[in-house]
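Inputs:
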Amino acid sequence: MGPRWKGKGSKAKAAAEPMSEIILALQSSLTTSKCKGLISGCSVLLEADSEQSTILNRACFGRAMVTSQKEKQWYELGLEEAFYLCYSLKYLEIVDHDSNVKSDVELWDYMCSQIETFPEFYKGYSHLRMKNWVVRPGSQYGVDFVAYRHHPALVHSEYAVLVLSEKKGNSGQRLKLWSDLHCTLRLCGGVAKTLLVLHVQDQGSETGFPGCLKNSEIKEQTISRWLPEKTREQNSNLKNQGEASNT
Amino acid sequence: MGPRWKGKGSKAKAAAEPMSEIILALQSSLTTSKCKGLISGCSVLLEADSEQSTILNRACFGRAMVTSQKEKQWYELGLEEAFYLCYSLKYLEIVDHDSNVKSDVELWDYMCSQIETFPEFYKGYSHLRMKNWVVRPGSQYGVDFVAYRHHPALVHSEYAVLVLSEKKGNSGQRLKLWSDLHCTLRLCGGVAKTLLVLHVQDQGSETGFPGCLKNSEIKEQTISRWLPEKTREQNSNLKNQGEASNT
């Protein structure tokens, strides 16, 4: 299953503006303005002027919040997004309500205290973002993330992503039963996405930050249904290709 | 979400021939002919003449198998179906490959040895069948069963059924994570079914057959998404009703 572009010209538009360049433009914008994110529960708030607003939207970070302010726009970043901008890209500083700038370690500890599965989810999120995939929450489809080849305005999300970890706990508990796997695959098929499973494997014994990030490896696996009638013979293969989108 | 009848006249046709009467006709047909089911791995095979074939189809038991025989038709019954016909309805005797008629206890033990979750699944299956729902395998949708108000030729299945048990083991492991619940609900919404969860609760300490069947209770629960915009005010409720089928 390839990318499903939204309308004519979208593919060319995406090719003309690679996501890697948009991310660089975001860097220049955020670092110049010395933008600071504000921790607030399970999200990080960011005040942006209209230029930053535009570039945050293009790079697909955060969610614009509805406020009464007209000149300034507030963005709500998920914890993975905020930590990625702050730690992996170094574009952003994050402060608490007393305006103290948080160190990477402090942030990591805070985020792990908010979401038990933060370490695995962050590894999965940053793994895809570093390859210039646009990664957004997947709860609508009952998965951890969805991944887009470019901006969601140009293309439908291609992968439904589940992050599984060998560690005991919440992540790693999905897809253990056939019925769960069937359910997930049937849903992915229905919304024309491929199920991408990211297996997070810890290589070393280091559990502290940042060692735990360096010592882990991610194995990617896509899962799809095997259709016997599609794999029999060359001829029947060709004949059946037209029906592929109906299955 | 009400029943979705297939075409005009289906509803009237179903009303004219209640499933309870079809089941009675099946009884008369199977008991008169002294039909015997043959155990074969995870299914029970049934040889039927054309009259029995018709009534098995109407009552929606088993799956017709493709064979080279023209006058006789073989049916493959799932273990729950076979045990229901044999034990709950007393319409059928089941034999092994040496033509020995199996007692209820022998059958129960055999079926439990084939499928670990047979006790819970049977309780769920028989619970719905006794209320004259047509119950079929749900693996296509990643659930345990689907339930139809009448014959699948007349109506779409209304419920996607998961059987959850308090016992440790496979059943009871679904819907423990939010992502799994979201996935299941999204899929159910997409195929216009309501998620019906049957919680099998054992009341007594008896684990042997048939005590375990009598001492258990089933709590039914339907789960659906809560849409804030649909529950605000009378007016907006009415306004939104037309959109309900799109959500």
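Chain A touches chain B at residues 138-144, 162, 170, 173-174, 176-187, 190-191 (CB under 8 Å). Flag for discussion at group meeting.
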